[in-house]
């Protein structure tokens, strides 16, 4: 099929089941996984594992790989969800995840791209529902609410489900943009769910595979309505990643690649993280700050590289179109007030 249909690659659902022996016990070197990794055709494809199964064999960062298999990074999903919604004690973990999860993948000849970063997948909440529901709402599935995952690390921003409260809606919009910024600046391979670019909702249903309705059908009308707001932000952020190779390095970050503007790593109540990713070729450094507190933080912005100045590209607290300015808005002064539950991105330019 790869040769005939020019298929780029495969993602293996619940792939850990392929790492079990006849009696169900885990295998260190499962033969099928090895054969795929060594096959003369398949080894040149993208081969991606969902590194867990229904029996609880959780192999994130430990999936047998022969330096070929990539993995869905389930820890990235959970850790990013928890930081952005404001859980305490997540700042250090956030730093690890956006840096490419070296704790999981810096083994043998593996690269950052072997970790597939994601916030949302085909099952579970959509991005909109992740910031709109604390609980799953699966009554329409006919299983009495027993189906679907209960551990979603979601936050409804103050109201469960649909609302006309402008403050809640604004916070939800910020949170969706915060998630997208984090995903697009993280080292590794980003994965998005189709529909999140316009804010698709399944109305809290996190196990909706059996519905051929608006719950699952792509809503082209909503995309058109949000083309110059939510969609524009998501689109421009993707372009920004594509245009800045320092966000997608083929090696793990060294101490010279990033500066953490941080002196309280051990403070579990701190929910603010700022750092600069350095461009050693052209000086086009990128400064990022994420504020998951419910109050503003006055950040001290470090000096830009020599003969450069900072331009604001992203402030998720601003309304469209000012929330993302691809060409950048010159920054004045050495400080920036970062609003509650928001993030900023600055680019050093001549």
From TrEMBL:
Residues 264-325 form the Isoamylase 1-3-like C-terminal domain. Gene3D superfamilies: Glycosidases (3.20.20.80), Golgi alpha-mannosidase II (2.60.40.1180). It comes from the Eukaryota. GO terms for biological process: polysaccharide catabolic process. This is Isoamylase 1-3-like C-terminal domain-containing protein. It comes from Aegilops tauschii subsp. strangulata.
């Amino acid at each position: 099929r790869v040769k005939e249909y020019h298929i780029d690659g495969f993602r293996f659902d619940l792939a850990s089941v392929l790492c079990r022996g006849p009696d169900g016990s885990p295998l260190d070197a499962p033969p099928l996984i090895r054969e795929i990794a060594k096959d003369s055709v398949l080894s040149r494809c993208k081969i991606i594992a969902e590194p867990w199964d229904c029996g609880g064999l959780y192999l994130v960062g430990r999936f047998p790989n022969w330096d070929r298999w990539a993995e869905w990074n389930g820890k990235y999903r959970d850790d990013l969800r928890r930081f952005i919604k404001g859980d305490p004690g997540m700042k250090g973990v956030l730093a690890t995840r956006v840096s490419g999860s070296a704790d999981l993948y810096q083994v043998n000849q593996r690269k950052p791209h072997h970790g597939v970063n994601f916030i949302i997948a085909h099952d579970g909440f959509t991005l909109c529902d992740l910031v709109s529901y604390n609980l799953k709402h699966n009554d329409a599935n006919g299983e009495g609410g027993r189906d679907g995952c209960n551990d979603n690390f979601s936050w409804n921003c103050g109201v469960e489900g649909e609302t006309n409260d402008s403050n809640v809606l604004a916070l939800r919009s910020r949170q969706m943009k915060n998630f997208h910024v984090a995903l697009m600046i993280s080292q590794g391979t980003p994965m998005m769910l189709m529909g999140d670019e316009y804010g698709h909702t399944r109305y809290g249903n996190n196990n909706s595979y059996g519905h051929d309705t608006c719950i699952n059908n792509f809503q082209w009308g909503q995309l058109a309505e949000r083309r110059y707001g939510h969609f524009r932000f998501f689109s421009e952020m993707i372009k920004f990643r594509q245009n800045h190779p320092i966000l997608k390095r083929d090696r793990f970050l060294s101490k010279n690649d990033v500066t953490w503007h941080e002196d309280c790593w051990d403070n579990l109540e701190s929910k603010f993280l700022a750092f600069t990713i350095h461009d050693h070729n052209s000086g086009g450094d990128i400064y990022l700050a994420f504020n998951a507190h419910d109050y503003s933080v006055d950040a001290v912005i470090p000096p830009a590289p020599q003969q450069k100045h900072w331009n604001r590209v992203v402030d998720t607290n601003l309304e469209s179109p000012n929330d993302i300015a691809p060409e950048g808005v010159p920054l004045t002064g050495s400080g920036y007030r970062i609003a509650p539950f928001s993030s900023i991105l600055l680019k050093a330019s001549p």
